[in-house]
Amino acid sequence: MPILGIDREKCINCDKCYQICPMDVFGKIGRLVYVAHQEDCMCCFLCDIDCPVTGAIIIDGRRSRPIPFPY
Amino acid sequence: MVKAVSRKITSLINEVIDADVLVVGGGLAGCMAAIKAKDQGVKVVLVDKGYISRSGQSPFAAGSINIFTPEDDLSLWLREIVERGEYLNDQEWVKLQLENIYSLTTELDAWGKEYGLTVLERDEKGSLLRRKARGNINTLTSVINALPMMDTLRRRLVKLEVPLYERIMVTDLLTEDGRVVGALGLNYRDGKLYLFRAKATILAAAGCGFKSFFIGHRNLTGEGQVMAYQLGAALRNLDQAMSNTTAREVDIHGLSFMVGFGGRFLNGRGEEFMWRYDPEVGNRARLTRLTVAMAREVAEGRGPIYMDLTQVPTHDQTLLKQIVPEGFRSLESVGLKPFREKIEWMPAFEGTLAHGGGVHIDLGCATGVPGLFAAGDNTCTPEHGTWSITGLNLSFCIVSGKVAADSAVPEASRASLSALGNLDVAPLVDALLAPLDREGGSNPEEVIARIQQTIIPYPVAYLRREETLQNALARIQNTRQWEIPRLRARNLRELVKAREVRNMALIAEAIVQSALYRQESRGFHYREDYPLTDNDQWLKWIMVKEERGEMKVRGEVFPTPYIQPPTGKYPPR
Ligand SMILES: Cc1cc2nc3c(=O)[nH]c(=O)nc-3n(C[C@H](O)[C@H](O)[C@H](O)COP(=O)(O)OP(=O)(O)OC[C@H]3O[C@@H](n4cnc5c(N)ncnc54)[C@H](O)[C@@H]3O)c2cc1C
Ligand code: SF4
Ligand code: SF4
Question: What is the CATH number of the domain that holds A18?
């Protein structure tokens, strides 16, 4: 799976990942940022790069949707 | 009457925004265009589907940029770029790009310094760090840092007070008497519809990557190319739809560095097969040759293909991990140990992104549609030809952004804003929102998968033949005729996807039609039934245009003012 989740202990709800994600994967309830559309994550790591807290965003490299292989 | 219509608009549209110059898409090309237009004192508006500086391909660029400096030899660089581009380049564009890139990148670098950001890498003496990278013989490649580059542009735009409209997907261009007078956009977070009125419009929304493999492009589905096409602009050289390569399990880039540090391609029998296809450079072969070779090995029963990094020296392993940290994290997250075992590898189709063809432009970035200009990957990237040398894309984005601004500003000063009442947006809004009203019909995700299944397999993407292409064409036309008009959306997110897949289908058809038309092999386009490059017949740009509702393809002979291509037929280079 791609983005696995946000570590609630570490996240400071700064909003950054919600602001920048190119695939609009995050959602917000009040100030709380959460992973709303894991299926659209493209494992680009931009949220992780921009997050001010190391390790708050948990990503693994697996593609979220199967894409047909060339062969 | 006018009043009645404009009342109708206000009931359909939530926000009306006016600009002298509207820029659609805020990647490297769009940001440059907006800044350069704003510098000339006009009112500029920049609209983007994502968050400007973190959307599109620009933030992911691997850092190679082609910068010709005043000390370099223009004729030598021009020759190399045109020869490597297999003569399909617009030679005047190559020259224009070479002549302008140094001053523009120097300026961009200086903006970065104001914010404490390092855009261009320099040596201790302050000169540009330059090296020979993939494809370079006499030319050199400089190093640009993608995220600081995009951060710099965003900060510059904010400083210049260019209004940024984000999370808005531009869906349609508006015309009046054949002139582009603005655009329609949907904010997919709050559902608001935006009407942008503009005196001149620059498209910089890149191409269509088919939500396929590789990094960072899955929100790029060709809107900018489709919108221009629908107004009569030509799509050029889509037969050159491009690919990179990646691991089979995860998306990773940095291939040039991997093979540069001793990475080898192996086939299923453990052979270092690339030396058979390219005796001179082997594993460091050009992408055009590499992707065809990988497909051929598999087609002939010698698959799968692996990347073997186990012989990379330890200090270079550390360096590689430093250059593409995310890629290596991805590999490790699926349990692969890239320096201890070979990794299964494959071509990664990327459609009309980067050098994969796009909107035909002239030397002034004009599309031929009045009031409409294009820059960056949205265009046919005229400097590249097929796939020339590394780093040309980023320099083209910078130069074409500036050129598009220089053309759009005087155009805007001649035009006036179209009266609100003259804009007939209702049919566009109805068509955009229609999937929300459908009960049955296809789910956009299913149709996306169907298009991918048609266009990505190697007999369509890499080892092309008349029959396989005809077959793909029939499938895509079927999808376009029966499924696209019946797409349904249950929410805004699916509505965006419904429009995206409509555009993907159109671009897919244009790619296949272009590939059928070019009966030779050149660059990314390899035809098993026409395996030679044929300079007598095919020194032509393949142009796809809509004429009376139909997709028409033709070949256009183009000028070659500086470098004369050789005559005759020869095996693809
Ligand atoms: C992983 C990777 C590595 C690369 N490395 C290099 C390299 O080292 N050197 C090199 O020269 N090139 C490289 N390239 C290619 C290069 O990055 C691109 O050619 C270049 O960034 C394109 O810039 P652009 O501004 O034209 O488009 P993009 O940067 O793709 O930006 C397009 C923008 O348009 C917006 N947009 C799209 N559709 C719409 C719409 N409907 N409405 C509103 N906005 C929209 C997007 O959100 C995005 O912000 C690389 C590409 C990738 C993917
Ligand atoms: S960027 Fe990091 S800290 Fe900020 S909201 Fe996202 S996960 Fe939390
Ligand atoms: S990895 Fe990329 S696509 Fe996935 S959630 Fe983070 S920013 Fe979004």
Answer: 3.30.70.20
Q: Is B567 exposed, middle or buried (0-12, 13-18, 19+ CB in 10 A)?
A: exposed
Which of A30-34, B323-327, B330-334 ranks highest by mean pLDDT? A30-34
pLDDT digits (tens, 9 = 90+) for B373-407: 999 999 999 999 999 998 999 999 999 999 999 99
- In the three-class reduction of DSSP (H, G, I as helix; E, B as strand; rest coil), residue B183 is classed as strand
Unique residue bearing structure tokens 């950054």: A16
Look at the domain B248-348 and name its fold: Flavocytochrome C3; Chain A, domain 1 (3.90.700)
| Residue A68 sits at the chain B interface (C-beta within 8 Å) | yes
Q: Name residue A33's beta-bridge partners.
A: A28
> Which part of chain B has CATH 3.90.700.10?
248-348
Residues A22, B56: C-beta atoms closer than 8 Å: yes
Task: Tell me where in chain B the CATH 1.20.58.100 domain(s) lie.
Answer: 426-545
Q: Is residue A60 part of a domain?
A: no
- Decide if B347 and A70 are in contact by the 8 Å CB cutoff: yes
With CB atoms and an 8 Å threshold, state whether A61 touches B251: yes
Specify the amino acid at residue B225. Answer: Q
**Nearest residue (CA) to ligand 3, atom 3:** A41
Q: Tally C-beta pairs within 8 A across A and B.
A: 95
| Cα gap B390→B81, rounded to integer Å | 10
Q: Is the CB of A33 under 6 A from ligand 3?
A: no
DSSP B198-259: EEEEEE----B-TT-SSSS-TT-B-HHHHHHHHTTPPEE-GGG-EEEEEESSS----HHHHH
Does residue A10 sit within a domain? yes
Here the tokens at position B323 are 């250059």
Quickly tell me which residue has 């004192």 as its tokens: B41
pLDDT of residue B137: 86
User: Which structure tokens are listed for B293?
Assistant: 């070779």
The verdict on A53 touching B (C-beta cutoff 8 Å) is no
Cβ–Cβ below 8 Å for B456 and A46: no
Output the pLDDT for position B439: 87
Q: Which atom of ligand 2 is nearest to the CA of A26?
A: 6
Contact criterion met (CB below 8 Å) for A71 and B215: no
Task: Render B161-173 in DSSP notation, one character per residue.
Answer: T--EE-SEEEEEE
Q: What are the E-state strand segments in B96-155?
A: 130-131, 141-143
Strand, helix or coil at B70?
coil
Domains of chain A: total: 1
- Find the helix or strand (DSSP H, E) in which A20 lies: helix A16-20
